[in-house]
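Figure 6 in text form: structure in, sequence out.
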């Protein structure tokens, strides 16, 4: 759970990033689709690594991280924010802390965004896709 002080710090950082041009307002459906495709591909590759006889656990973690990173950036684009190339991982993290979203990856290949209030799923965010979810990615 992210405490109130950390959320406040993330809000201040996000405001500074907007001012510095590290994150900008805007949407890009092509980039969003690319992030979604990369997230799914990375997740499948991580699953393959887990099943591999080589047991490349370090690479499984790295690939899984990037899957979460890609889906997080897709959510930010959907919310109207585009990250720049400088300190992109930190900017993405701060923006999502500020927005307090959990992302569920539905089994049909579609993402479902669920707003979180006080570390619980908001009751109005119920979705029939959530019941079919086979993987949960918390960002």
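Output sequence:
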């Amino acid at each position: 759970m992210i405490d109130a002080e950390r959320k406040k710090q993330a809000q201040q950082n996000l405001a500074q990033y907007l001012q510095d041009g590290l994150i900008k307002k805007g949407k890009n459906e092509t980039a969003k689709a690319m992030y979604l495709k990369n997230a799914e591909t990375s997740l499948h590759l991580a699953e393959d690594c887990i099943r591999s006889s080589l047991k490349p656990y370090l690479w499984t973690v790295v690939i899984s991280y990037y899957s979460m990173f890609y889906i997080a950036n897709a959510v930010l684009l959907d919310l109207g924010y585009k990250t720049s190339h400088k300190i992109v991982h930190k900017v993405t993290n701060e923006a999502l802390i500020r927005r307090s979203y959990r992302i569920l990856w539905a089994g049909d290949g579609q993402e479902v965004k669920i707003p979180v209030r006080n570390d619980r799923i908001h009751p109005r965010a119920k979705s029939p896709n959530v019941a079919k979810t086979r993987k949960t990615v918390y960002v």
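Caption detail: The longest strand covers residues 111-117.
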